[in-house]
Write a sequence for this structure.
């Protein structure tokens, strides 16, 4: 399947490019897919550091190398 995900509100970057479409689009109703990190990723911090995952993590790797 060929689709230009850059034309959506969630362009695929990093590890997201390697996923099967059904990882996020289980029902294949594409307009109903969520775009928040918490939809697919467990919050091991239990909201103790807020919900802006991109402050510390990125699409390349969830490993944090520079902890403040």
């Amino acid at each position: 399947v060929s689709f230009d995900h850059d034309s959506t509100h969630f362009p695929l970057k990093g590890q997201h490019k390697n996923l099967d479409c059904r990882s996020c689009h289980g029902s294949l109703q594409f307009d109903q897919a969520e775009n928040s990190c918490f939809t697919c990723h467990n919050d091991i911090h239990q909201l103790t550091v807020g919900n802006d995952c991109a402050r510390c993590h990125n699409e390349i790797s969830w490993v944090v190398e520079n902890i403040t």
The chain is about 5% helix and 0% strand. Residues 37-40 form the longest helix (4 residues). The chain has a mean pLDDT of 84.
